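From the shared-data thread, chain only:
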Amino acid sequence: MCTYNGALYVQEQLKSIAAQTRMPDELVICDDRSSDNTLEIIESFATNAAFPVRIYINDKNLGSTKNFEKAVELCDGELIALSDQDDVWHPEKLLRSEAALSLQPGAGMVFTDADIVDENMRSLNLRLWECVSFGNKEQKLFTAGKAFNVLFARNVVTGTTMTFRSEFKPLILPVPTDFSVIHDGWIALMISAVAGIAFIPERAVKYRQHSGQQVGAFRSAAKAGTPSTAMPQLTQVDYLAEANRVKMMHERLTAYAGNHLRKDVGAQLHAKMTHFNVRARMPNRKYLRIPFVLKELSAFRYHLYSNGMYSAARDLLG
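Structure, as tokens:
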């Protein structure tokens, strides 16, 4: 669990962890220099908890991604479940997650659905998977072992619902801070490249929406539904940076999996690197761009990795 000025909600989440039918073997909490009474609440909880609670206070504010990176690194167990400070877990969340991974030894991670609730835990009559568009199509791809295909396009996994095997720590750590997704999306994407991803349709978390959270279901849904014409205007420098980020990801996966890296994963990474390198190096004269744009269109890379015809037109005419 990562905490930062979470005094308003953290006690409810701690109580829900203590009420699990399958108790955690440990609870690692990294606090990111809270200025409210968050630390008093978690220290009081630790004195009475039925399991070890290890509390770490950062020397300086790290931000959400690096704080979770630190917490993951400090975990000793075979399975790691991420916890936000402002949600509430249903009593069987850990039990069901552990059971799912036991039944699917080839899966490196499992995640659940969640109830969307307001700041007072009142139901908003929405499921998390509705908000992130994890429907029948995406679920069939996950079941067929093609989770990477989905996650490489967009993240559908929320951190507070995920549990993963600690053996993947060398793969996911350190977590980059300049990638297109935050820590939970990065963890899911990297594990999906080398292992299966299991999912549990039950809503195992009450996912609280409030004004103070960094990322919420509605923000995620709005981002996913943004029309291409409203996307930020990227430059050739941005395209080169994206190509380099994908290259870094490919190098990390290759170092971890070696020759065992799935061919389809390597092919997708190479295709995305190629696409953004081409976009980064478009000739200044517009008529000279035509063969490059046509090649990317015929390979369908504009549609897979950019915004389709809108991006093609922008490269041709911009």
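The CA atoms of residues 285 and 316 lie 9 Å apart.
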